[in-house]
Design brief:
By secondary structure, the protein is an alpha/beta fold. It has 5 helices and 9 strands. 32% of the residues lie in helices and 21% in strands.
Length: 174
């Protein structure tokens, strides 16, 4: 279950995990059925990589209320298998993931020259990790539990940044 603390404007995951729809590692209760992994449309999509089902579900709910499409993945490896490269959007990325961590996924995205602004969203952040992510080209770095307003502002800014930099990868490099 995902908890939205309306008084403080924060989002946080509860300790209990619920069962979301899982298909090949991709999870989504809220994704628009006309906008699947093989979508060829230009509508922006917020991609989520987080191994916590409660966090994925809550982020999907917030993103859908903004009128945006989203696709969630349980691991970095599952995200790398998707056919989303070249489509407009941004990536909400947790650091602590099974196997490949968030910084490793960011490095792989940079190597593949994938054009996708990355916003780290993690409970395990520190100043060193933040500096490493930003130096490697991350668009933003938020710590869980994040303020909903900060999250929404970061997503909108990343989507705008991505649409203004169509000839570049997510790091700002050609």
């Amino acid at each position: 279950m995902f908890i939205m603390d309306r008084l403080n404007g924060r989002i946080a995951a509860s300790a209990t995990k619920n069962n979301s729809n899982k298909k090949g590692g991709v999870t989504s209760k809220y994704v628009n059925t006309s906008n699947t992994l093989n979508n060829t449309g230009n509508r922006p999509c917020v991609y989520i990589v987080d191994d916590d089902a409660a966090v994925r579900d809550g982020l999907e709910m917030v993103i859908e209320t903004l009128g945006l499409d989203c696709q969630a993945f349980v691991s970095a490896e599952e995200f790398l298998k998707c056919d989303c490269y070249g489509k407009p959007g941004c990536l909400l990325l947790d650091y602590k993931l099974p196997a490949m961590n968030g910084l490793d996924l960011q490095a792989e995205i940079n190597l593949r020259r994938i054009r996708l602004p990355i916003i780290f969203l993690t409970a395990h952040g520190n100043s060193t990790m933040t500096a490493m992510a930003l130096e490697a080209g991350a668009f933003g770095f938020l710590t869980k539990p994040a303020q909903i307003g900060d999250l929404v502002k970061s997503i909108r800014a990343a989507l705008q940044h991505g649409s203004n930099n169509t000839g570049q990868n997510g790091t700002g490099n050609p």
